[in-house]
Structures are given as C-alpha cells and as structure tokens.
Amino acid sequence: MPDYDLFVIGAGSGGVRAARLAASMGARVAVAENRYLGGTCVNVGCIPKKLYAFAAHYQQDFIDSAGFGWQIPKPAILDWETLKNNKSKEIHRLNGIYSQILEKSGATIINGNAKLEGPGTVSVGDQSFTASHILIATGGWPFVPTFSGSEHVLTSNEIFDLPRLPARMLIVGGGYIAVEFAGIFSGLGTEITLAYRGREILKQFDSDLRAHFMQEAARHMKLLMEIDVKSIELLENSKYLVNFSDDSSATYDTVLYATGRKPNTKGLGLENTAIVTNNNGTIKVDDKFRTDEPSIFAIGDVVGHMALTPVALAEGMVVADTLFGDGRRQISYDNIPTAIFSHPNLATVGLSEQAAQESYTDIAIYESDFRHLRHTLSGNPERTYMKVIVDTATDKVLGMHMMGSDAGAIIQGFATAMICGLTKRQLDATIGIHPTAAEEFVTMRSRAR
Predict the structure, then answer these.
(1) What stretches of 59-209 adopt beta strand conformation (E)?
(2) Under DSSP, is residue 162 helix (H, G, I), strand (E, B) or coil?
(3) pLDDT tens-digit profile of 10-52?
(4) By the 8 A CB rule, do 353 and 192 touch?
(5) Is the CA virtual torsion 434, 436, 441, 446 positive or negative?
(6) Which of 160, 114, 102 is nearest to 264 (CA)?
C-alpha cells in the first residue's frame, strides 16, 4: 500500500484547499512545502499587497478630509518600520492558520523541497514517499530578463521588506503587479516612474478602461511607454543609474521589475514522468487537471489558466472531488471577476469590447464617466468610469467594467448576476441604492454606441 492516497507538492492556497478537502473525504494526505505555508498570496502577494494598498490610500484620504472640515496636522509622516512589522505579524498569524487547517484535517505537513522520482514516488531531502496520486501546486515565480545590471533589480518577492522607503523608484512592467505597486508606493510618498515597452499598460483589459486609468495614473506617477531598460549601474551613493532604450538615463533608489511570472517547476523532476509542458512552460492538463501522467494532477499558476487565488482554490476542489468524491464538480472560466487594487481601483467581469466584437454580430455599449459624490467636497479631481457591454440580439450582458473606489466589491455582486444570465432589461429594472457609485450600473439608459 502506498504511504499516501494524495501527495500535494506546494502549500499555497490551491494545494491546501485540495489537501484539506481530500482529507475530509477520508484520504490519507501529505503536503510538502519548501518555503512558507499559504504560498505567494499569503506571503508575498494578495495579502501584504492589499495591506500596503490600504496604507497607501491614507495620504490621499488625509488630503481629501480637509474639504469636509478636518484639520490634519502636517506633514503626516509614514513610519515604514511600523507598517512592515505589522504586516509581518499578520502574515505570521495566517501562516499559523494554514498550519492549523492542515493539521485539523488530518493531513501531514512535510517541510522541504519535493521532487518527483517517478509517477508515484516523491522525495523530500533524503526521505522517499509513495502515493497513489500526486498534485502539483507549486505556483509561479517572478521573471526578470537578463541584461547588464539585472542583478540590481528587485521583484515582488522582496519589495515588501525594503530597509527604508525609497524616495524615487522605477517600476518596469505593464501588468497588474506593476500597476498595483506603482499606486502603492506613490501613495506612500515615493516618486514613481512606470516604464513599459508597450504602447498601453494592462493590455488584457478593456481598452476604454485602460485609457481612463492611464489618465488617472498620470496624475500620480510618470509614465514612460514604448521604452525598455538597456542597463543599470550601481553608483557610489548606493543609487542606481538606469539607461533606457531611447538613450535617456535617470537615477533611482530602487528598481522593481514586474515583468511577468513563470511556472515554478525548476528542480521538480518533471523529466522523471510523462508530464508534458506547453510552450510557455505551464503544465498541460485536461479539464479535470490530470496531466499526461495519469496519476499526477496540477492546478493553479503552474498550469496557467488564470493566475488568481480563487481560481486555484476552485481547481483544487475539482481535483479532490474527482479523486475522492463523486467527480461532478467542475469549474467554468467564463465570467470570472478580477480586480486591480491600483489607484484608483479597477475591476472587470466578462468580455472586453474588443473580445465581444470578435464573437457577436452586434453589441451595445453603455458608459458613465463621473466625479464621485465625495469629491464634490474633497476637491479631488479623480474620476469614476463604468462600462456595460450588451449583446443586442439576446439583451444579455456580456461584460461589466469599472474604475473607481471599491470597484472590486461592486463588480463582485454583478458577477453573480452575470453567471445567472443577467440581461440589460434586468439591470434597468433594478432599483439602485442612492447615493452610491454602484447605482450607476443600473441607471445607464442611453446607448453610447
């Protein structure tokens, strides 16, 4: 008899969820982790990033409060050490919760690097374990291109614990990680330059949403588009001279690279199995997340469907149910909402206008661009933007997009409605909560185009 029914490699959100559910179904489960319980999300991703995003908004809130009669002593000073220490305490608490979750479920935690030695064998250090089934949930890892001076850059793994808050920072990248950290550090008081080799950041989002966001972002940071870094030099004063592809140069205290993530499979021993990888390095799986090695499954960022923690959780539950349940659980990647905790927030669910045009003959676009009620007194020029995309043939809502305060929380509710087949007629029939920004979604009557 094998040592375990299921051996999970990686104690991130997806791996822990699969292990916990499988153990609750009576399976003998082990989880191997070589770094920290909770994976990227808990330790160097969603949680610390959102905590820092909260911190970053206080500066603007202090400024906005003056219009409401509050007199805040100036200047308001951020204690960087307090923020870092309190963040670390919260992550330590969450690490403990993940440990308790696994232990209470009956799963065994094994610390160390796990390597596949064959279809049913895993080694961790000098120990060897056998399992009927193996689940790979090792996530992704930041990617930094190699160039002269690339050894001087930081990634999202290291950026939370800088010894001091930098006065000037260069962030290279155009995805959600780059955009979020640009907003965070700008809000904390750092002078930010965001450089991207493309013409527009956030290329996977709706073009109108991107355009409105870039207008807002330009008020908080310097945007350099269609540019790349040629080299970085460490100066005697511990600053960095960055030479750009347009032959310009500038000096920064910190350089952050947010240029994508790669599947975390190095040293995993995939070559000892029949597992096949895609061109981008992700592991090839079927709709039940089974690899080409029938006893081995893979979920989360390492398979590359959608790099979102809730998606990894859902995928983990599918695997546990497939192996130890009735096998009926499925996951749909349609209408999965997502948010960027930028400044201001962005959130979206469903199709962009461009994607809708490719799949539908005639679509209707509804838009609203307005100044939030709170800013009529605060004096803050920030705008809120909303967009609804509708299939005119069926009246079905195909996509909803928002830029503005609490965009993620607002879109979450509409995502549920879209999964239930929301139509524009139903949106129009919904009574809005007044006065809120969310009511704009149910009061757009005039078709923009």
Answers:
(1) 108-111, 114-118, 121-124, 127-136, 140-142, 168-172, 191-196
(2) coil
(3) 999 999 999 999 999 999 999 999 999 999 999 999 999 999 9
(4) no
(5) positive
(6) 114
pTM, two decimals, is: 0.95
What string of DSSP letters covers 5-73? EEEEE--BHHHHHHHHHHHHTT--EEEEESS-TBHHHHHHSHHHHHHHHHHHHHHHHHHHHGGGT----
Give 319: exposed, middle or buried? Use CB within 10 Å, 0-12, 13-18, 19+: buried
Alpha helices (H) along 365-433: 375-378, 407-419, 424-429
User: 434 an active-site residue?
Assistant: yes
Contact 114, 100 (CB under 8 A): no
Tokens read off for 285: 């799986």
Helix, strand or coil, per DSSP, at residue 294: coil
Dihedral sign computed on CA atoms, order 8, 10, 13, 14: negative
Given 57, 212, 372, 434, which residue is catalytic? 434
Q: Which domains does the chain have, with CATH numbers?
A: 4-141+262-324 (3.50.50.60), 150-259 (3.50.50.60), 338-442 (3.30.390.30)
The full DSSP string for 299-315 is -GGGTTS---HHHHHHH
Q: How far apart are CA 87 and CA 85, in angstroms?
A: 5
Tens of pLDDT along 135-184?
A: 999 999 999 999 999 999 999 999 999 999 999 999 999 999 999 999 99
